[in-house]
UniProtKB/TrEMBL annotation:
It is an enzyme of class 2 (transferase). It comes from Thermomonospora cellulosilytica. It is a multi-pass membrane protein. This is Mannosyltransferase. One of its GO terms (molecular function) is pentosyltransferase activity. The chain crosses the membrane at residues 12-32, 53-74, 80-100, 107-127, 133-151, 158-180, 200-219, 240-262, 274-292, 299-318.
Length: 477
């Protein structure tokens, strides 16, 4: 009985720390266009319309959108409300990693690994975003924990639970299934017991098969979703190392501690070698996705942050090899060195763009009867971040709204004559310009640009910069 409080403290302390980190300044970073996409898909349409959307785009986000559809119906669409599931997921991930470290090593390894997950700047950044990446991290940790329990118990119940977790991993984010090669590597430590492999393989296959009906649709939609990704280069790898270590200055210490971790003998009673599991978890998912991306670019950092717990476990094992008088200040120093990154990702300028500022600008200066033009059709999804700010404006290039065409931005007209006819009776038009968008000669983006920004019929009456672009107000001459 006296050991129970300590036993529960190992996952509880990292969970509380992760929740505190996740909630700290969670509403300071502005919503950006990906979060607006979440709102557009999950909160701004009916369930039948959402299912139609998933049949056209974003099938790989289907489970998350369905969850957020229910969540926003209950808790609303405020910044805190829509980001809270991600913060809670970080707490779950920290707790499960701590429990895993305790089970495969000892309480000290578990506690430190959980705290390192809680203190990871890249994980805490996505814990403050209304997307599914920390949820994927939590599910990857849960599936790994269930695998360990299944290897210990060797009963169908645990393998069935593992299969369900693998299915959820695939449904929440397809690339998170790259945790399976790490699990297979962990089984190498019990390779002499082929019965375990013959039990794991069907469970992993069953979990993966749950996503197979959607896979052809996801592959068909791929060009609509990741066609902006370019092939990885040296800078890509550098950003990956920075993120996984917590900061560039921590890369060398983390690598050294990982090497030290391999000097420790595995716990004799553990069902798998934690050194192999943690190394495979940290290395294989990003390495495999980077390798694929050399041929077909699909790698992006946020797709592989579920591998950060592997780094945390290796680092914790390395610290465990040190005497306590050295490990404690080393851990404290590492945590302190992550503070600048934590502060950086919690500023108003920390996101790729700021759709809330666009909404505020227009809401403060609009007049009845104003027109609205988005230079890039995809940017229309930002309306979901604050529908009231745009209500009543005449969207001059919109043909059919998003819910009617089962996408996030709707379809647009494509001829300048219709655009001019719609704008003919207007005195003022808001023009949302996205930085870096250069339409080619004759493109619809170039036509819109020339019709307002380079036209003799309109004068620029206002100009407001926002992170990601510029809002212009044009008045007819």
């Amino acid at each position: 009985m006296t050991r129970d409080p300590v036993r529960w403290a190992v996952p509880a302390v990292p969970a509380l720390a992760a929740l505190a980190v996740g909630l700290w300044r969670i509403t300071v970073p502005p919503l950006w266009r990906d979060e607006a996409a979440t709102l557009s898909a999950a909160a701004e349409r009916s369930l039948p319309d959402l299912l139609r959307l998933l049949g056209n785009i974003d099938a790989v986000h289907g489970l998350y959108y369905l969850f957020m559809h229910v969540w926003t119906a209950v808790f609303g669409t405020g910044d805190l409300a829509i980001r809270l599931p991600s913060a809670l997921a970080l707490a779950v991930a920290a707790a499960v990693v701590a429990a895993l470290g305790r089970r495969l090593a000892d309480a000290r390894v578990g506690l430190v690994a959980g705290l390192l997950v809680a203190a990871s700047p890249v994980l805490s950044r996505y814990a403050q975003e209304a997307r599914q990446y920390t949820i994927a991290t939590a599910l990857a940790a849960v599936s790994t924990y269930l695998l360990v329990r299944a290897l210990e118990a060797r009963t169908p119940r645990w393998f069935a639970g593992y299969a369900v977790s693998v299915a959820l991993v695939g449904w929440i984010q397809l690339f998170t299934l790259l945790i399976l090669p790490a699990h297979l590597a962990a089984l190498w430590t019990v390779r002499r017991d082929r019965a375990l492999l013959t039990r794991w393989a069907p469970a992993a296959a069953a979990g993966t098969a749950a996503f197979l009906p959607v896979l052809p649709l996801a592959l068909e939609q791929r060009t609509k979703q990741v066609n902006w990704i370019t092939a990885p280069d040296a800078e890509t790898v550098q950003r990956l190392l920075d993120a996984f270590a917590g900061d560039r200055i921590l890369i060398a210490p983390v690598v050294v501690l990982a090497v030290v971790a391999w000097w420790r003998r595995p716990s004799p009673g553990a069902p798998v070698d934690l050194r192999i599991l943690a190394t495979a978890w940290a290395v294989l998912p990003p390495a495999l996705l980077l390798a694929v991306s050399l041929v077909e670019p699909v790698y992006w950092l946020r797709y592989v942050i579920f591998a950060v717990p592997g780094v945390a476990l290796l680092t914790a094992m390395g610290l465990r090899a040190m005497p306590l008088w050295g490990a404690v200040p080393a851990l404290a120093a590492m945590l302190a060195l992550t503070v600048p990154m934590h502060l950086e990702v919690r500023t108003a300028g920390s996101r790729p763009d700021d759709v809330e500022r666009v909404a505020r600008i227009i809401a403060e200066h609009r007049r009845p009867g104003d027109g609205l033009v988005f230079e890039e059709a995809l940017y229309r999804r930002i309306v979901a971040a604050d529908p009231q700010a745009f209500a009543g404006l005449s969207d001059l290039t919109l043909d059919r709204p998003a819910d009617q065409v089962a996408d996030l931005q709707g379809s647009e007209i494509s001829d300048v004559a219709t655009l001019r006819r719609r704008a003919a009776g207007l005195r003022r038009v808001w023009y949302v310009d996205r930085s870096g968008l250069e339409g080619g000669p004759g493109s619809w983006e170039r036509v819109k640009d020339e019709e307002f920004q380079r036209s003799e019929d309109w004068d620029q009456a206002g100009r407001w910069r926002f992170r990601g672009g510029t809002v212009y107000l044009y008045e007819r001459r």
